[in-house]
Protein backbone atom coordinates (compact mmCIF):
# COMPACT_ATOMS: atom_id res chain seq x y z
CA UNK A 1 0.00 0.00 0.00
CA UNK A 2 1.36 3.45 -0.91
CA UNK A 3 1.50 6.24 1.59
CA UNK A 4 -1.54 8.36 2.14
CA UNK A 5 0.05 11.71 1.31
CA UNK A 6 2.82 13.18 -0.78
CA UNK A 7 5.07 15.87 0.67
CA UNK A 8 7.23 17.72 -1.86
CA UNK A 9 9.85 19.62 0.07
CA UNK A 10 12.13 22.53 -0.22
CA UNK A 11 11.98 23.42 -3.91
CA UNK A 12 14.05 26.35 -5.08
CA UNK A 13 10.83 27.75 -6.51
CA UNK A 14 7.22 26.70 -6.17
CA UNK A 15 5.28 28.50 -8.90
CA UNK A 16 1.84 28.92 -7.35
CA UNK A 17 0.06 31.43 -9.65
CA UNK A 18 -2.19 32.07 -6.71
CA UNK A 19 -5.40 34.02 -7.11
CA UNK A 20 -5.79 33.20 -10.81
CA UNK A 21 -8.64 30.68 -10.73
CA UNK A 22 -11.52 33.06 -11.39
CA UNK A 23 -10.51 34.45 -14.75
CA UNK A 24 -7.58 34.36 -17.16
CA UNK A 25 -4.61 36.59 -16.50
CA UNK A 26 -4.03 39.61 -18.74
CA UNK A 27 -1.29 42.18 -19.28
CA UNK A 28 1.11 42.46 -16.34
CA UNK A 29 -0.84 39.84 -14.37
CA UNK A 30 0.74 37.32 -16.74
CA UNK A 31 4.13 38.19 -15.23
CA UNK A 32 3.05 37.45 -11.66
CA UNK A 33 3.86 33.83 -10.89
CA UNK A 34 3.61 34.17 -7.09
CA UNK A 35 6.70 32.08 -6.43
CA UNK A 36 7.47 30.62 -3.01
CA UNK A 37 11.23 30.19 -2.60
CA UNK A 38 12.27 27.21 -0.53
CA UNK A 39 8.69 26.06 -0.90
CA UNK A 40 6.86 22.83 -0.12
CA UNK A 41 3.51 21.31 -1.05
CA UNK A 42 1.41 18.74 0.86
CA UNK A 43 -0.85 16.56 -1.33
CA UNK A 44 -3.56 14.28 -0.06
CA UNK A 45 -6.70 12.61 -1.48
CA UNK A 46 -5.68 13.73 -4.96
CA UNK A 47 -5.85 17.38 -3.91
CA UNK A 48 -3.48 20.13 -2.84
CA UNK A 49 -3.82 20.51 0.92
CA UNK A 50 -1.12 23.09 1.66
CA UNK A 51 1.55 25.14 -0.08
CA UNK A 52 4.06 27.54 1.44
CA UNK A 53 7.56 27.89 2.88
CA UNK A 54 9.05 24.58 3.98
CA UNK A 55 9.32 25.61 7.67
CA UNK A 56 5.63 26.49 7.76
CA UNK A 57 4.48 23.19 6.27
CA UNK A 58 6.88 21.23 8.40
CA UNK A 59 5.41 22.84 11.52
CA UNK A 60 1.89 21.96 10.39
CA UNK A 61 2.57 18.38 9.32
CA UNK A 62 5.36 17.37 11.75
CA UNK A 63 3.15 14.87 13.51
CA UNK A 64 2.06 13.26 10.21
CA UNK A 65 5.39 12.89 8.43
CA UNK A 66 5.24 9.10 8.70
CA UNK A 67 2.09 9.06 6.60
CA UNK A 68 3.69 10.80 3.66
CA UNK A 69 5.99 9.84 0.84
CA UNK A 70 8.54 12.64 0.78
CA UNK A 71 10.11 14.03 -2.38
CA UNK A 72 13.11 16.27 -1.90
CA UNK A 73 12.92 19.00 -4.56
CA UNK A 74 16.00 20.91 -3.42
CA UNK A 75 17.52 22.79 -6.35
CA UNK A 76 14.44 22.25 -8.53
CA UNK A 77 11.27 24.02 -9.61
CA UNK A 78 7.74 22.85 -8.81
CA UNK A 79 5.02 24.06 -11.15
CA UNK A 80 1.36 23.26 -11.83
CA UNK A 81 0.96 20.36 -14.28
CA UNK A 82 0.95 21.92 -17.73
CA UNK A 83 -2.29 22.24 -19.67
CA UNK A 84 -2.45 21.88 -23.45
CA UNK A 85 -5.68 23.54 -24.62
CA UNK A 86 -5.59 22.72 -28.37
CA UNK A 87 -4.74 19.32 -29.82
CA UNK A 88 -5.99 17.01 -32.54
CA UNK A 89 -4.94 14.06 -30.41
CA UNK A 90 -7.00 11.29 -31.98
CA UNK A 91 -5.98 10.48 -35.55
CA UNK A 92 -4.38 7.74 -37.63
CA UNK A 93 -1.32 7.86 -39.83
CA UNK A 94 1.26 10.54 -40.49
CA UNK A 95 2.08 13.02 -43.29
CA UNK A 96 5.85 13.24 -43.58
CA UNK A 97 5.44 13.10 -47.38
CA UNK A 98 3.61 16.45 -47.24
CA UNK A 99 6.31 17.87 -45.00
CA UNK A 100 8.79 17.01 -47.71
CA UNK A 101 6.53 18.59 -50.37
CA UNK A 102 6.32 21.77 -48.32
CA UNK A 103 10.09 21.84 -48.00
CA UNK A 104 10.17 21.83 -51.83
CA UNK A 105 7.81 24.81 -51.98
CA UNK A 106 4.21 23.47 -51.95
CA UNK A 107 1.86 25.34 -49.64
CA UNK A 108 -0.24 23.83 -46.84
CA UNK A 109 -3.50 24.96 -48.49
CA UNK A 110 -2.48 23.80 -51.99
CA UNK A 111 -1.82 20.33 -50.59
CA UNK A 112 -5.20 20.34 -48.84
CA UNK A 113 -7.05 21.60 -51.93
CA UNK A 114 -5.48 18.80 -53.95
CA UNK A 115 -7.06 16.25 -51.63
CA UNK A 116 -4.18 15.86 -49.17
CA UNK A 117 -3.77 17.59 -45.81
CA UNK A 118 -6.77 17.19 -43.53
CA UNK A 119 -8.42 14.99 -46.22
CA UNK A 120 -5.50 12.55 -46.15
CA UNK A 121 -5.74 12.17 -42.37
CA UNK A 122 -9.52 11.88 -42.66
CA UNK A 123 -9.12 8.88 -44.99
CA UNK A 124 -6.62 7.22 -42.65
CA UNK A 125 -8.80 7.91 -39.61
CA UNK A 126 -11.95 6.60 -41.30
CA UNK A 127 -10.11 3.41 -42.21
CA UNK A 128 -8.76 2.87 -38.71
CA UNK A 129 -10.94 1.00 -36.24
CA UNK A 130 -11.54 2.14 -32.67
CA UNK A 131 -8.74 -0.07 -31.33
CA UNK A 132 -6.08 1.23 -33.70
CA UNK A 133 -7.05 4.84 -33.02
CA UNK A 134 -6.99 4.16 -29.29
CA UNK A 135 -3.53 2.59 -29.42
CA UNK A 136 -1.98 5.32 -31.61
CA UNK A 137 -3.50 8.12 -29.53
CA UNK A 138 -2.56 6.55 -26.20
CA UNK A 139 1.06 6.50 -27.31
CA UNK A 140 0.88 10.24 -27.94
CA UNK A 141 -0.83 10.81 -24.62
CA UNK A 142 1.98 9.02 -22.78
CA UNK A 143 4.48 11.32 -24.47
CA UNK A 144 2.52 14.40 -23.48
CA UNK A 145 2.63 13.20 -19.89
CA UNK A 146 6.40 12.76 -20.01
CA UNK A 147 6.60 16.39 -21.19
CA UNK A 148 4.72 17.56 -18.10
CA UNK A 149 1.20 17.88 -19.50
CA UNK A 150 -1.53 16.66 -17.13
CA UNK A 151 -4.67 18.05 -18.81
CA UNK A 152 -5.26 18.18 -22.53
CA UNK A 153 -7.95 19.23 -24.96
CA UNK A 154 -8.67 16.87 -27.88
CA UNK A 155 -10.64 17.71 -31.01
CA UNK A 156 -12.45 15.47 -33.46
CA UNK A 157 -12.46 16.61 -37.09
CA UNK A 158 -10.82 13.77 -38.99
CA UNK A 159 -14.08 11.87 -39.38
CA UNK A 160 -16.19 14.49 -41.18
CA UNK A 161 -19.19 12.16 -41.12
CA UNK A 162 -21.43 11.43 -38.15
CA UNK A 163 -20.18 7.86 -37.81
CA UNK A 164 -16.49 8.70 -37.86
CA UNK A 165 -16.72 11.90 -35.79
CA UNK A 166 -18.45 9.83 -33.09
CA UNK A 167 -15.73 7.19 -33.36
CA UNK A 168 -13.02 9.79 -32.71
CA UNK A 169 -14.91 11.28 -29.77
CA UNK A 170 -15.56 7.84 -28.30
CA UNK A 171 -11.85 7.05 -28.47
CA UNK A 172 -11.13 10.33 -26.63
CA UNK A 173 -13.71 9.37 -23.99
CA UNK A 174 -12.18 5.93 -23.53
CA UNK A 175 -8.73 7.50 -23.18
CA UNK A 176 -10.08 9.91 -20.58
CA UNK A 177 -11.56 7.00 -18.65
CA UNK A 178 -8.54 4.72 -18.87
CA UNK A 179 -5.53 7.07 -18.84
CA UNK A 180 -4.51 9.30 -15.94
CA UNK A 181 -4.48 12.35 -18.25
CA UNK A 182 -7.62 14.48 -18.12
CA UNK A 183 -9.00 14.95 -21.61
CA UNK A 184 -11.45 17.71 -22.51
CA UNK A 185 -13.27 16.96 -25.76
CA UNK A 186 -14.13 19.33 -28.57
CA UNK A 187 -16.33 18.47 -31.53
CA UNK A 188 -14.84 19.76 -34.78
CA UNK A 189 -17.01 18.33 -37.53
CA UNK A 190 -16.38 21.61 -39.37
CA UNK A 191 -12.67 21.00 -39.85
CA UNK A 192 -12.89 20.69 -43.64
CA UNK A 193 -15.53 20.25 -46.32
CA UNK A 194 -15.23 16.60 -47.39
CA UNK A 195 -14.66 15.89 -51.10
CA UNK A 196 -18.21 14.64 -51.75
CA UNK A 197 -19.63 18.02 -50.60
CA UNK A 198 -17.12 20.14 -52.54
CA UNK A 199 -19.76 21.41 -54.96
CA UNK A 200 -22.23 22.11 -52.18
CA UNK A 201 -20.51 23.12 -48.95
CA UNK A 202 -23.74 24.58 -47.53
CA UNK A 203 -25.18 21.09 -47.50
CA UNK A 204 -22.27 19.95 -45.33
CA UNK A 205 -22.77 22.92 -43.00
CA UNK A 206 -26.41 21.84 -42.66
CA UNK A 207 -25.31 18.29 -41.88
CA UNK A 208 -22.99 19.52 -39.13
CA UNK A 209 -25.74 21.71 -37.67
CA UNK A 210 -28.75 19.42 -38.01
CA UNK A 211 -27.28 15.97 -37.46
CA UNK A 212 -23.80 15.97 -36.00
CA UNK A 213 -24.09 18.65 -33.32
CA UNK A 214 -27.40 17.35 -31.85
CA UNK A 215 -26.09 13.76 -31.70
CA UNK A 216 -22.73 14.69 -30.16
CA UNK A 217 -24.51 16.82 -27.55
CA UNK A 218 -27.12 14.14 -26.84
CA UNK A 219 -24.37 11.58 -26.20
CA UNK A 220 -22.42 14.04 -24.03
CA UNK A 221 -19.27 13.45 -26.07
CA UNK A 222 -17.97 17.03 -26.19
CA UNK A 223 -17.95 20.30 -24.26
CA UNK A 224 -16.78 22.57 -27.06
CA UNK A 225 -17.54 23.11 -30.72
CA UNK A 226 -14.79 24.31 -33.06
CA UNK A 227 -14.66 25.38 -36.70
CA UNK A 228 -11.82 26.05 -39.17
CA UNK A 229 -12.73 29.57 -40.29
CA UNK A 230 -10.40 30.15 -43.23
CA UNK A 231 -10.56 31.25 -46.85
CA UNK A 232 -11.53 28.14 -48.85
CA UNK A 233 -12.73 26.21 -45.80
CA UNK A 234 -15.60 27.76 -43.76
CA UNK A 235 -16.59 31.43 -44.10
CA UNK A 236 -17.13 33.67 -41.06
CA UNK A 237 -20.89 33.46 -41.73
CA UNK A 238 -20.90 29.67 -41.89
CA UNK A 239 -18.66 29.57 -38.81
CA UNK A 240 -21.10 31.74 -36.89
CA UNK A 241 -24.04 29.54 -37.82
CA UNK A 242 -22.18 26.42 -36.74
CA UNK A 243 -20.98 27.92 -33.47
CA UNK A 244 -24.37 29.35 -32.59
CA UNK A 245 -26.03 26.01 -33.34
CA UNK A 246 -23.53 24.32 -31.06
CA UNK A 247 -24.25 26.76 -28.28
CA UNK A 248 -27.97 25.97 -28.47
CA UNK A 249 -26.99 22.37 -27.71
CA UNK A 250 -24.69 23.32 -24.84
CA UNK A 251 -21.41 23.18 -26.77
CA UNK A 252 -19.25 26.23 -26.16
CA UNK A 253 -17.65 27.94 -29.15
CA UNK A 254 -14.00 27.86 -30.14
CA UNK A 255 -12.57 28.83 -33.50
CA UNK A 256 -9.51 28.26 -35.69
CA UNK A 257 -9.08 31.85 -36.82
CA UNK A 258 -6.88 33.85 -39.20
CA UNK A 259 -4.29 31.11 -39.55
CA UNK A 260 -3.33 31.38 -43.22
CA UNK A 261 -4.99 34.61 -44.34
CA UNK A 262 -6.63 37.56 -42.59
CA UNK A 263 -10.29 36.51 -42.71
CA UNK A 264 -12.14 38.22 -39.88
CA UNK A 265 -11.74 35.19 -37.62
CA UNK A 266 -10.78 37.16 -34.51
CA UNK A 267 -13.75 39.48 -35.07
CA UNK A 268 -16.04 36.46 -35.51
CA UNK A 269 -14.75 34.97 -32.25
CA UNK A 270 -15.59 38.18 -30.39
CA UNK A 271 -19.01 38.43 -32.05
CA UNK A 272 -20.06 34.92 -31.05
CA UNK A 273 -18.43 35.23 -27.61
CA UNK A 274 -16.08 32.30 -28.19
CA UNK A 275 -14.16 30.94 -25.23
CA UNK A 276 -11.03 31.05 -27.35
CA UNK A 277 -9.79 31.96 -30.81
CA UNK A 278 -6.82 29.89 -31.87
CA UNK A 279 -3.90 30.45 -34.31
CA UNK A 280 -4.39 34.19 -35.11
CA UNK A 281 -1.21 34.53 -37.16
CA UNK A 282 -3.00 37.04 -39.40
CA UNK A 283 -5.43 38.56 -36.90
CA UNK A 284 -6.23 42.24 -37.46
CA UNK A 285 -5.64 44.95 -34.85
CA UNK A 286 -9.39 45.51 -34.73
CA UNK A 287 -9.96 41.79 -34.16
CA UNK A 288 -7.48 41.76 -31.28
CA UNK A 289 -9.16 44.80 -29.75
CA UNK A 290 -12.55 43.12 -29.97
CA UNK A 291 -11.16 39.94 -28.39
CA UNK A 292 -9.68 41.95 -25.51
CA UNK A 293 -13.03 43.67 -24.91
CA UNK A 294 -14.91 40.36 -24.90
CA UNK A 295 -12.28 38.45 -22.92
CA UNK A 296 -11.79 35.88 -25.69
CA UNK A 297 -8.64 33.91 -24.94
CA UNK A 298 -6.02 33.76 -27.71
CA UNK A 299 -4.68 30.22 -27.89
CA UNK A 300 -1.42 30.73 -29.78
CA UNK A 301 0.35 27.89 -31.55
CA UNK A 302 3.91 28.92 -32.36
CA UNK A 303 4.88 25.33 -33.24
CA UNK A 304 2.46 25.50 -36.18
CA UNK A 305 3.97 28.73 -37.50
CA UNK A 306 7.44 27.23 -37.03
CA UNK A 307 6.55 24.02 -38.84
CA UNK A 308 4.70 25.83 -41.66
CA UNK A 309 7.65 28.24 -41.93
CA UNK A 310 5.31 31.19 -41.40
CA UNK A 311 5.58 34.24 -39.21
CA UNK A 312 4.26 33.60 -35.71
CA UNK A 313 1.22 35.30 -34.23
CA UNK A 314 2.11 38.52 -32.46
CA UNK A 315 1.80 37.32 -28.87
CA UNK A 316 3.50 40.42 -27.51
CA UNK A 317 1.03 42.74 -29.19
CA UNK A 318 -1.93 40.69 -28.01
CA UNK A 319 -0.80 40.68 -24.39
CA UNK A 320 -0.16 44.43 -24.52
CA UNK A 321 -3.62 44.92 -26.03
CA UNK A 322 -5.16 43.12 -23.04
CA UNK A 323 -5.96 39.79 -24.72
CA UNK A 324 -5.50 36.83 -22.34
CA UNK A 325 -2.98 34.54 -24.04
CA UNK A 326 -2.54 30.76 -23.74
CA UNK A 327 -0.11 28.52 -25.63
CA UNK A 328 -0.53 25.04 -27.09
CA UNK A 329 1.16 22.42 -29.27
CA UNK A 330 -1.73 22.12 -31.79
CA UNK A 331 -0.51 18.52 -31.97
CA UNK A 332 -1.71 17.18 -35.35
CA UNK A 333 -0.19 15.18 -38.21
CA UNK A 334 -0.03 18.05 -40.72
CA UNK A 335 0.89 21.44 -39.36
CA UNK A 336 2.41 20.60 -35.96
CA UNK A 337 3.29 16.96 -35.25
CA UNK A 338 4.80 17.65 -31.85
CA UNK A 339 3.89 16.66 -28.30
CA UNK A 340 6.45 19.00 -26.78
CA UNK A 341 4.81 21.81 -24.85
CA UNK A 342 8.28 22.75 -23.48
CA UNK A 343 9.40 23.49 -27.05
CA UNK A 344 6.26 25.58 -27.59
CA UNK A 345 7.21 27.63 -24.51
CA UNK A 346 10.66 28.21 -26.00
CA UNK A 347 9.06 29.41 -29.24
CA UNK A 348 6.70 31.66 -27.28
CA UNK A 349 9.75 33.51 -26.02
CA UNK A 350 11.89 33.35 -29.12
CA UNK A 351 9.26 33.89 -31.82
CA UNK A 352 6.43 35.80 -30.14
CA UNK A 353 8.21 38.18 -27.81
CA UNK A 354 6.74 36.70 -24.64
CA UNK A 355 8.69 36.66 -21.39
CA UNK A 356 9.59 33.41 -19.55
CA UNK A 357 7.01 34.27 -16.88
CA UNK A 358 4.28 34.96 -19.44
CA UNK A 359 4.79 31.60 -21.13
CA UNK A 360 4.40 29.83 -17.79
CA UNK A 361 1.09 31.61 -17.22
CA UNK A 362 0.08 30.80 -20.81
CA UNK A 363 0.67 27.05 -20.38
CA UNK A 364 -0.86 26.70 -16.93
CA UNK A 365 -3.70 28.85 -15.68
CA UNK A 366 -4.58 30.65 -18.92
CA UNK A 367 -4.52 27.34 -20.78
CA UNK A 368 -6.82 25.92 -18.08
CA UNK A 369 -9.24 28.83 -18.53
CA UNK A 370 -9.22 28.23 -22.31
CA UNK A 371 -10.91 24.86 -21.62
CA UNK A 372 -12.99 25.97 -18.63
CA UNK A 373 -10.79 24.23 -16.08
CA UNK A 374 -9.49 27.32 -14.27
CA UNK A 375 -11.16 26.24 -11.03
CA UNK A 376 -9.63 22.75 -11.07
CA UNK A 377 -6.09 22.98 -12.41
CA UNK A 378 -3.45 25.45 -13.62
CA UNK A 379 -2.28 26.81 -10.27
CA UNK A 380 -0.94 25.38 -7.01
CA UNK A 381 -3.66 26.38 -4.57
CA UNK A 382 -5.40 24.60 -1.75
CA UNK A 383 -8.36 22.53 -2.99
CA UNK A 384 -7.17 22.19 -6.56
CA UNK A 385 -6.23 18.88 -8.20
CA UNK A 386 -2.84 17.56 -7.11
CA UNK A 387 -1.41 17.87 -10.64
CA UNK A 388 2.19 19.04 -10.41
CA UNK A 389 5.49 18.85 -12.24
CA UNK A 390 8.98 18.91 -10.80
CA UNK A 391 11.42 20.47 -13.24
CA UNK A 392 15.12 19.79 -13.14
CA UNK A 393 16.18 23.44 -13.29
CA UNK A 394 17.12 25.83 -10.47
CA UNK A 395 14.77 28.58 -11.65
CA UNK A 396 11.90 28.84 -14.13
CA UNK A 397 13.82 31.08 -16.53
CA UNK A 398 16.19 28.21 -17.31
CA UNK A 399 13.28 26.33 -18.88
CA UNK A 400 13.39 28.82 -21.72
CA UNK A 401 17.11 29.55 -21.61
CA UNK A 402 18.14 25.87 -21.99
CA UNK A 403 15.80 25.58 -24.96
CA UNK A 404 14.87 22.41 -26.81
CA UNK A 405 15.20 20.27 -23.69
CA UNK A 406 12.49 18.49 -21.74
CA UNK A 407 13.35 19.41 -18.16
CA UNK A 408 10.40 17.47 -16.70
CA UNK A 409 11.74 15.15 -14.02
CA UNK A 410 8.65 14.11 -12.09
CA UNK A 411 4.96 14.35 -12.93
CA UNK A 412 2.32 14.01 -10.25
CA UNK A 413 -1.24 13.40 -11.38
CA UNK A 414 -4.11 13.34 -8.89
CA UNK A 415 -1.52 13.09 -6.11
CA UNK A 416 0.32 10.08 -7.60
CA UNK A 417 3.75 10.00 -9.19
CA UNK A 418 3.20 8.97 -12.82
CA UNK A 419 6.53 10.05 -14.30
CA UNK A 420 9.76 9.60 -12.36
CA UNK A 421 13.25 10.58 -13.54
CA UNK A 422 11.64 11.51 -16.88
CA UNK A 423 10.09 8.05 -17.43
CA UNK A 424 6.55 6.72 -17.16
CA UNK A 425 6.10 4.84 -13.90
N1 LIG B 1 -5.68 24.32 -39.47
C1 LIG B 1 -6.50 23.51 -39.19
N2 LIG B 1 -6.39 22.40 -38.45
C2 LIG B 1 -5.16 21.93 -37.87
C3 LIG B 1 -4.32 21.21 -38.83
C4 LIG B 1 -4.93 19.95 -39.27
C5 LIG B 1 -4.12 19.14 -40.22
O1 LIG B 1 -3.36 19.67 -41.05
O2 LIG B 1 -4.31 17.93 -40.17
C6 LIG B 1 -4.44 23.06 -37.16
O3 LIG B 1 -5.02 23.57 -36.22
O4 LIG B 1 -3.32 23.43 -37.52
ZN1 LIG C 1 -5.96 22.96 -34.57
From TrEMBL:
The EC code for this enzyme is: 3.5.2.7
- InterPro entries named in the record: Amidohydro-rel, HutI, Metal-dep_hydrolase_composite, Metal_Hydrolase
Q: Which residues make up the binding site for 4-imidazolone-5-propanoate? A: 95, 158, 191, 259, 335
Which superkingdom does the taxonomy of this entry point to? Bacteria
Q: What class of enzyme is it?
A: hydrolase
Q: In which pathway does it act?
A: Amino-acid degradation; L-histidine degradation into L-glutamate; N-formimidoyl-L-glutamate from L-histidine: step 3/3
Residues annotated as binding N-formimidoyl-L-glutamate are 158, 332, 334
* Listed Pfam families: Amidohydro_1
Q: Name one GO molecular function term.
A: imidazolonepropionase activity
Query: Where would I find the Amidohydrolase-related domain in this sequence?
Result: 77-418
Residues holding Zn(2+): 86, 88, 256, 330
Q: What name goes with this protein? A: Imidazolonepropionase
The lineage is: Bacteria, Bacillati, Bacillota, Bacilli, Bacillales
Which gene carries the instructions for this protein? hutI
Amino acid sequence: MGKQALFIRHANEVITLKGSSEKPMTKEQMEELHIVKGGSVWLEDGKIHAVGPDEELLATYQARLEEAEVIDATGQVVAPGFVDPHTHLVFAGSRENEFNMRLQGSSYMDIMNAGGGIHATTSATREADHEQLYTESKRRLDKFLVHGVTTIEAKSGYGLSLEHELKQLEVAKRLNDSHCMDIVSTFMGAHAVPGDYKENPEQFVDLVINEMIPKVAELGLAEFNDVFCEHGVFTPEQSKRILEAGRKHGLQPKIHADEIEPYGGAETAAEVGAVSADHLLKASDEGMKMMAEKGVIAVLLPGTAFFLMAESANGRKMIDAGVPVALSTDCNPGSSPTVSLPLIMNLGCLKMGMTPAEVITATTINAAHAINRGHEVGSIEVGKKADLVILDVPNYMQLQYHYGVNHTKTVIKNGEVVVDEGRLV
